[in-house]
Amino acid sequence: MSGDTNKTDTHTGDTLRVPLLEVQPVPLPVPVPAPVAVSVDDDLEALPISRSLPLEVVGNGNLTSAVGNNSSNNSNNNNNNIRNTTATAVNIDESDWDHGVVQPKACRDCFWGFLFLLQFAGVAILSVMGIRSAIRHGSEWIDDGDDDSGSGGNDDNFNKHALWFVVSLLSIVIAVPSILLNLLLGPFSSMLIQISLVVSPLSMFVSFVVSLITMNCPVALFSLIFCVMGVFYATSVWHKIPFATANLTIALASIKDNHGLWILAYAVTLKSYAWIVLWCSAVLEMVYFSPNWVYDCGSDSDDGSNAICTISTRGKLIAFGMLLSLFWTCQVISNMFHTTIAGVVGTWWFDPEEARSASAQGRSGGLFGFCGCSPAIWNSYLRSGIHSLGSIAFGSLLVAVLKVVQIVVRCGRQQRDAQRRARGIQGTDFLFCLLQYFVDQLERLLEYVNVWAFVYVGLYGYDYWTAGKQVATLFKARGWDVIITDNLVSRSLSMMSLLISGITGLLGMVLGFFLLGTAEAIQGLVLGFLLGGSSCQILFGVVTSAVNTVVVCFAESPNHLNQNSHDPEHFRGLVEAYRTAYPNECGF
Length: 588
Description:
- The chain is mostly helical.
- It has a domain at 110-118 and 166-188 and 255-281 and 294-581.
- It is 64% helix and 3% strand.
- The chain has 17 helices and 6 strands.
- The protein has helices at 110-136, 138-141, 152-185, 189-213, 217-237, 241-256, 260-289, 313-350, 366-370, 375-387, 389-422, 430-460, 464-478, 488-515, 521-556, 559-563, 568-581, and strands spanning 6-8, 15-17, 37-38, 63-64, 295-299, 307-311.
- A two-stranded antiparallel sheet has the order 1-2. Strands 3-4 form a two-stranded antiparallel sheet.
- Strand 5 (295-299) and strand 6 form a beta hairpin.
- The chain is globular.
- The chain starts with 5 loop residues before the first strand and ends in a 7-residue tail after the last helix.
- The relative contact order is 0.13.
C-alpha cells in the first residue's frame, strides 16, 4: 500500500491506479471437455455459480468460463470433488473507473497536526504539575490510620477479596466478549442480523399490548406506531441481509489474518484512559491548586472574612479550551485506530501476503508474529500516526468543536429555563431548541462523513478534504448512495453488545455475591454490565471499521478480491448478494 503507482489511459487521458498487486487469476484444472462462451446483456440474471470453478474477470462484455486449456492437467484432478452446478464468470469492467492513487510518503495537513501536538504538550505539562502538587499535598489527604490498628485484620481480608473481585471481573469482561464474538458473530452473522430486525418491532408490540391492558393509551399509541415502522423497515431491508452478511464475513476474514488488531484495540483503549487521567490532573491543577487561573475572588465584608469566588472570563476561555482538548484528543485516538484498520484491511484486499500474520499462515514469526501482528498493522499504524496525523487531527477537530458547542448550547438552555422558572414563566426558548437540534444533527453528519473519509485516508494517504471528496465521488459514480446508509451490521452488533453486557453483568453479580457479600452484588451487576459494554464497544469497533473498509474496497476495485489469493467464496458470495440486494444499482 505504498509507493506512487499511476498509469494513464490513452483514450481518456485520466490517471488510473495500477493494481497494487499484479496477480492474475489462475484457473483451476477441471475435467470439462471444452470452454463455453455465452453472450449476455446487462439485464440477464446471474446463473448458478459453481463452487469448484474460479471466476475469471473479462472486459469484452462476454461471460466466459474459467477453464481455459487444461486438458493436459485433467489426469491429475480425477480425485477432486466437483459439484454438479453451472459455472459463470462475472464481468466487472473497471477500465472506465476512476481509482484512488496511493500518495507518496509525506506529512499532510501539517498545520493541524502541529496544532494538535502543541495542545497535547500544554495539557501534558499541566498534568505533570497537577500530579506533583497532588503528591506534595498527599500527606494532608491520607489518614495514617493509627487509631484503627485493631481492625487491620478485617480490612486486609476485605482488601484481598476486593482485589480478587476486580481481577476476576476484568478477566471476565475481556474474555467473555472475545469468546462470544468468535463463537457467534462468524457462523451466525446472518441470523443475528435477522434477529436484530425482529427484536425492535416485537418489543414495541409487547409494549403496545401491556400498555393497552393497563389502559395507558398514549404509550400504547406510540408503541403501535413504532411497531408498524419497525415492521415496515424490516420488510424493506430483509433482502439486503445477504449483502450485509457477506461484507461482515469478509471483514472477519481480514481480521482473522490480522488478529493482532484485537490487542491493538485494547492498547488504544488504555491510551484513551491514560489521556483522561492526564486531562483530569491538568484540571485539578488549575481548579484546586492554582485557582487564581480560573477564579476571581473578592469579599462581601470589610474584614475579608467572607470570600466570594466567581469564574472569570479567562476561566471560561480556559474551560472551553480544556473541553475542546478533551474531545479533540479522544477523537484523534479513536480515528487514528479507525484509519489503521482501514489501512490493514485495504492492504489485505490488494496485497494479502503483506497483511497476513505468521500465525495465520501456520508458521512461527517470533513474538510479533505469534500475537497475530502482520507487517501491515505496523506500517498502517505508522502511516496514521505520522503521515496522516494532520488529516486525522483536522477531521477530529471539526467534531470536537461541535461537541463543545453542543455542551455550551445545553448549558445556555438550562440557564435560560432556570431564569424563566425563577420569574414564574413557563416554557422553553424556541431558539435554543432549534440551535441544539441543528448542532446535534451537524455533529452526526460530520461523524458520518469522517467514517468514510478516514477510510480513504487509511487506504491511499490523502489529505482530509481530498479524501472526503474522493469517497463521495466514488459512491456517487457507483450509484451507492443507498448502500452506505444501511446500518444492518451496526444494528446486529448493538444487539449483541447488549446481550454480552447482560451476561457480564450477571457474572459480575455472582462474583460480588461470593467475594464481597450480598450488599455488593448489585454493584457487581452494574460494574460488570458497564465494563462488558465497554469491552464490546472496543471489539465491535474493530469489526465496524473493517466492514466500512470492505464496502469502500468493493466499490473501488472488486476484481482484486477475485484476482489475489483470497478464498473464491468471498468474491462469489459478495457479488451474488450485491446483485440480489441492489439490482438497480448493480452495474455488473
